Amino acid sequence: MKNTQSPKAATATAIDLFLTFAKVGLFTFGGGYAMISLIENTCVEKKAWITHDEMMDVTVIAESTPGPIAINCATYVGYKQKGFAGALIATLGMVLPSFLIIFLISMFLDNFLEIKWIANAFMGIKIAVGILIFDAAIKMIRKMQKKPIPMAIMACSAVAMFLINFYALGFSSIMLMLVAAIVSLSIFAIKGAAK
Amino acid sequence: MIYLELLAGFLKVGLFAFGGAYGAIPLIRDVVLSYGWISDEMLTYMIAVSESTPGPIMVNLATYVGSSQAGILGALVATTAVVLPSFIIILVIMVLLKKILKNPWTQAILRGLKPCMIGIILATGAFMILRNGTTDMTAIIMTEGLAAAYFGSRLVTKKGMSPIGLIGLSAVAGIIVYSL
After folding, report:
1. What pTM did the predictor assign?
2. ipTM value of the model?
3. Residues 6+ apart with CB under 8 A from A180
4. Contact A124 B178 (CB under 8 A)
């Protein structure tokens, strides 16, 4: 059906997709949920590319799948609009601004850090980063269902990960996640069998 | 070969990073340190830079690590690798398997993965605070001051200080404290 559109209109939409997501990529700091509200504002309210319900769907899917939430949204909206090419264009638009900015920074960061006061600033920033990560975890725990099994998995993973970090053990966080997935699957299977 | 390593490393990150930006940080740290690409300290700096520049944090980190290891081509490889898994997964879900997420077995796996990820983030945050914030008396005072300002700001305004606000404050504090 989409093929019946004139090629000119199709190109315009592709450019629109690209520019819209490039704008989202350029103007959202801190990632994650800040982006969702901007994407909702642009794609649902201004452009009507997807409905509010679909936006809710994307959010749920994004939370259940790995990867940056903004990428998940861009891929979803792009695919809805123009199929595979649309998904590719929207995702590219999303990534391009930060790619260019970070690439530029990467060429100069080492030189910047040789300047004394910038190095001092980063000494302070180093401390802030730990606080931010810790705070992100606290916020997630607050939103978690306070049931015994998830809380136990969370607590065991936290202790295990801390020990891995502290003693620099050669056990990766991915292995830890696989163990947690297997434990959870086993509990589900045992519960099913018990019924 | 560095390009293959970057590809493999960041595919892993993209595939396992549940829980948004902060979910990716422990994984990226794990991968980056195990390959010995950049130091833990440099990575911490880059997390702050990624937080203060636009775009998804894990994309920013992938671009930086790729670029630092193998120039623009490395940046392209790492960035593509970190994005590819979620791109493919969303397409697959939309095209073929809309019900896969509702499947009870998928749900059981996610019920294990999500709390584990939260635990990993918690431990990584706690470890970073302990390592960077307790090296000497100055660091301890900085940590307590920044934490008090960050969490205390929520008592004053509803939303409290933003992450970028805290990074800005910590930079100013760093300049003042360490330059004197």
Report:
1. 0.76
2. 0.79
3. A153, A157, B112, B113, B115, B116
4. yes
